[in-house]
Amino acid sequence: MLAPLSLPSLEALLRAQVFGHPLAHRPDVDSTQEWGRTEARNGAPEGAVFLTDYQTSGRGRLGRTWLAPPCSSVLASLLVRPGASLYPRLFMIGGLAAVMAIEADCGVPCSIKWPNDVLIKGMKVAGVLTEGGFVGAVPDFSLVGIGINVNLDPATLAPTRYPATSLSHEVGTAVDRERLIADLLLWFERLYAEPAESDAIPNLWRARLDILGRPVTIVSNGEAVEGTATNVDSTGALTLTLPSRERRTFVAGDVSLSP
Ligand code: BT5
Fold first, then answer.
1. Distance, CA 22 to ligand 1 centroid (Å)?
2. Given 23, 56, 88, 182, which is the most exposed site by the fewest CB atoms within 10 A?
3. pLDDT tens per residue, range 9-24
């Protein structure tokens, strides 16, 4: 029987100094991103974290749906108010934090599918959604939404775009969600503290990518392009070398390995 998150247990495990202060939990919500956005507009501080056991409108990128049976997953939105130079890196920090926390807690190696999916053995175990809030044209805050499949049978998810897995499925036993969230926040905090001018984050992120040097198909703005993934720069932009030797660079899209 899956239990709701215990905030006292999570608070006892929390070692992050900024992230998780405050920690907010609701049994169910439309989306932690929406909830976090409202709180951010009402002045919630950097480090506030919004958690739930169930989302009625959990979302991925481009209006897609994020699925999670009740009490099965990590569903978290982290509020940040960084300097302008850090915003473009938040998706890398979110993905890496999930990788590090999963590896520390479960001992299973993870990779990153460009740009924002965390994979175990090529199957998606977590996704990251970064959304900004602006005052006029000036960034005011960002919400880094992280969903991790923890204690669920992947076969019970509706068909997903990419094969899915969960931590319990991979390790063969239930995984402690409170511990995983505490570790996620600690890793996020460590990575977030890296100076914006340092290349440590892009380098760590690049080292986890599963596509470099491999033939891939990217779908971006409705166009499918095939080529070899030859480079990812420090902003995360992906360059493909096409069979014609033309090089094209993409900042967004969905990538899959070509058969
Ligand atoms: C993502 O989008 O992967 C970002 C997911 C972010 C979810 C978190 S949960 C907390 C916070 N609050 C929210 O409302 N969202 C964030 P994308 O790359 O667009 O992938 C979405 C696609 O993944 C969907 O179209 C499905 O095909 C697939 N999918 C949905 N649920 C999944 C799951 N639990 N595991 C694996 N794949 C899933």
1. 25
2. 56
3. 999 999 999 999 999 9
Residue 125 CA, ligand 1 centroid: distance in Å: 10
Give 90's pLDDT tier (boundaries 50, 70, 90). Answer: very high
Task: Answer yes or no: are the C-beta atoms of 239 and 230 closer than 8 Å.
Answer: yes
pLDDT value at position 246?
A: 96
For 57, the token pair is 């409108």
Backbone angles phi and psi of 57, in degrees to 5: -135, 50
Q: What is the mean pLDDT of residues 106-130?
A: 96
Q: Estimate to the nearest angstrom the gap between the alpha carbon of 13 and the chain centroid.
A: 21
pLDDT tens-digit profile of 46-67? 999 999 999 999 999 988 999 9
205-232 pLDDT, tens digit per residue, is: 999 998 999 999 999 988 999 999 999 9
CB atoms within 10 A of CB 111: 16
Residue among 233, 231, 234, 249 at smallest CA distance from 196: 234
126 CA distance to ligand 1 centroid (A)?
A: 7
State which of 66, 73, 90, 185 you would mutate to test the pocket of ligand 1, scoring each by most atoms of that ligand within 8 A of its C-beta.
66
* Its pTM surpasses 0.70: yes
Q: Are 180 and 139 in contact (CB under 8 A)?
A: no
Q: Where are the alpha helices (DSSP H) in the chain?
A: 7-13, 32-41, 90-106, 167-171, 177-192, 200-208
Let me know: does 202 contact 111? Beta carbons within 8 Å: no
Non-local CB neighbours of 259 within 8 Å, separated by 6+ positions: none
The closest alpha carbon to 54, from 169, 152, 139, 193, belongs to 152
Helices (H), 42-166: 90-106
